[in-house]
Fold this sequence. Notes:
5 strands
Amino acid sequence: MIGGKSKRKQAKPFNQSNTRAWLFTWLDVLAIGAWGILMLRYWLTGKLNLLIHPDYFWLVISGGIGLIIIAASKAWELLRRRRNSGTATQHVTLFPPGMSSSLLLVTAIIGMTFTPRVFASQTALDRGVTDSLGATRAQPQAFRSARNPEERSLLDWVRTLNVYPEPDAYAGQSAKVQGFVIHPPELPPEYILISRFVITCCAADAYPVGLPVKLTTSRQAYPPDTWLEIEGTMMTDTLAGKRQLTIQATSLTQIAEPENPYEY
């Protein structure tokens, strides 16, 4: 038709400013989606327990699902806007455009690339290993006083000491605990610490607990960070000028690092 007017709406041409705003908006979508995927990935691969207490898994899972839904909705909206008008939403931020989203996206990619590592003996020494729990760390609701001594975990022993800290009260009782080896410099060479990290909320507040173990040989046979199952008898010993509940080891068996190395 000569001179006819087309009823089809013509898309507005993209100028440079609109193109940049469009790219930055897509960067937001990628950053939001990447963090949602990262959170669900930790859950699906069983690594979430290295970062957070199981009681809060639901928050991470629901947060990851929510972020993916937001990213998908935003992506759909952008595609629809481009078809209809060819414009993108302009952002007003304190930082240069795209900077915050770029940082979030890079952080998420790093999180997907590297696997979280379990805290090791040096971290335990830096944070200070204890055989007692402070007021903010005690969790009486999880205490199992009725357990037989040989059924107590390392954390059960620490909680038991927290209730009644006299080490002589436990002398002669059987012990069977699992944990990783620490070589505290202040202990004689025939002693090690058997330790576990305890998480109350997330890895940032994890703290190590442990008990001394008296060996019949030098501790050099058991390098730091080696996981052991130790059987023995409880005794009172004076170490670094302090009376402490100590395990007189009768059997030390090297074991693999548990799938979940933390206590709660």
